[in-house]
Amino acid sequence: MTEPDLFSSPDGKSPVERIRELRRQLEHHNRLYYTDATPEISDAEYDTLFRELENLEKLHPELDDPNSPTRRVGGQPIEGFSQVSHPVPMLSIDDVFELSPEAVAAQNAPRPDVELIEFYQRLRKNLGRDDIAVTIEPKIDGVAVSLLYRDGKLHYAATRGDGTTGDDITHNVRTIRSIPLDLTTTVAGASPSSALQDRPAPPPLLEIRGEIFMPNAAFAAMNAERDEQGLPTFANPRNATAGTLKQLDPKITAKRPLAFLAHGLGAYQGEPFHTEHDFHRLLDTLTIPRNQPLFNATTLDETLAAVATINRDRHDLDYATDGAVVKVLDHAERRQLGATSRAPRWAAAYKFLPEQQETTLLDITIQVGRTGVLTPVAELEPVLISGSTVSRATLHNQDEIDRKQIRIGSKVLVEKAGEIIPAIVKVTEPSANPVYSIFDHVGGKCPSCSGPISQEEGFVAWRCTNFQCPAQAVTRISHFASRKALDIDGLGETVAEALVRHGHCHTPLDLFNLDEETLANLNLGTDEAPRRFGEKNAAKVLKSLEKARSKPLNRWLFAMGIRHLGESAAKELSRLHQNLTEVVSSEILAELIRDNRAVAKKKNDLLLPFAITGDVGPAVAETIATFFASEAGKHVITRLAELAIHPASDNYLPKPAEADLTSLPLTGKTFVITGTLTQDRSAFKSLIESKGGKVTGSVSKNTDYLLAGEGGGSKRDKAEKLGVAIIGEDQLATLLG
Ligand code: IVH
Is CATH 3.40.190.10 the right assignment for the domain spanning 659-735? Predict the structure, then answer.
């Protein structure tokens, strides 16, 4: 009698074979789901296969493969980005612009697409022929990436960087489901059961150039969800993509809806390509998703027509695009044309004008966001732009209103660019009204709760500072209950939302008035489809609330959701104070504020003995003082006393600590922030302050660095004039060490 083989699957396959088969099947279903949008199996069936593979891989660590589909959920965070030197430089494309009506008039141009015609004429001259075969495709507004496959396995993925050297982002790219990790398993048409022998082998070396992006719909959904959770939203899909690819933790990346499309070739060893079509055929065989629609043209007229079609239909694409790329089809002709150090001569990107329409600004309304920011919204006479009716546009903040001299009743030019939210470009016909003032309009009060509003130093946004503002109630209660705050088990966003909706809670401290019956009967659903919270959950919440009463001071401080008062600042405050009462009347905080306001900014001797870390700076001190002096803050103190809750420090140590202000990387450095960054400016402000730096609102000769994102016109100009160093997020990271 033979021994049963514990490692064989029931159909007699060896673990090696079964693992290979499962990997192939899972990648096949990934492709059907993520690239072709034609899934063939249910999520549950997919999960079963996935778990079987996970188990087998656990049993057979010797068969480990970094390109296994099980790695797509994200592995361990990396320490930092290593560099990849591109085997073939990643060049840029020369832009040619669609001219605006004003530019056509000013330049006396025959038509808006003259620059494109001139590009085609250069091709004619260099190739000595009139008709040149080209392809035309949309330009994807994403992040350029190089995928290098060796013998069909993803060897690395890298960003463009400076074109010669880029960042290794393999850990993040592995999580993108539409990117095949192992080309030996993904040959098109090869159903999981089809024989291995009819798979063509992938080329030994294949470097694919393409674009990673966030599909428009997925971007909108992700932003809506982030907003719900009180997290900062991204300005546009491109920023969201760039920010995501900079993550060190691939588990975060795995949760973001990134996609990939190929558009070019880098290093290559294999059957030679005669035209771009040969290359496309290889991509299709290997199931590497490529950019589409793709148009072919053999004459100038056909080329212009294809470009016009892309311009007309581009709003139906699922990615942001601001142009069309025209490329010579024949690879021998490409070689003949060559490249400058910057860009090939065989391609051009024709940049479309964003679609604009004139309409009337009927009114401006103020929305109070879930984090208390007052956002002015333009209410417009509805107008059709880029295939959708636009009746509202964002005005961002008072700075923007002032810069554009926005008055209610004016005629305005509205634009809907790649960004999902329409914007006002300029006023075309001003009304007689005064320039709109947010502060005057709301009478200095929050339109949601009539609480005080304030504009923090360094920020243009007006913000409601009322702890009890109903617009912020759900956010504040969820934050109060979150794991890192008071950790109220079972009290998430949905419950917080229901508590506020049914009038049981207005502020976080109202949670302590809840009884078991109210909680158990809480309807989380709708009137039509009610969903009871239930006794068990109610008991869980009450138990956690009981436990919260004796949680340490730093948790309580953090739970209050005071601006800038993050976890580390809360910890540092509880090191410096024994209890909440001491924080409320803190001499240390008062001193920090005085120190900051003092004209002579020398280091304050009084504070030195405390060796305060950069986590608590003047900005935090100011917001804490303002909070406890406000009605809301006083209410919190009174209510806590009534509830007999006395938060006390568990790390009180007012003596000189190890940490020394002078040793922080940004000590003594002053920053100004401008433009669109990958995160909220306040996040960067906190980061800089936590490392000993200071953030101010305007550029002066005392400014050390301007941290500049996209845009940021006037501050950038001023910094350039004053010779202030202008840095990006990467350089900030370097400064932080
Ligand atoms: S072809 C030598 N096709 O735009 C470069 N590029 O602004 C040939 N891009 O670096 C590139 N969509 O990352 C090509 N359909 C497309 C594209 C595209 C976006 C990016 C690409 C390039 C950048 C230049």
Answer: no
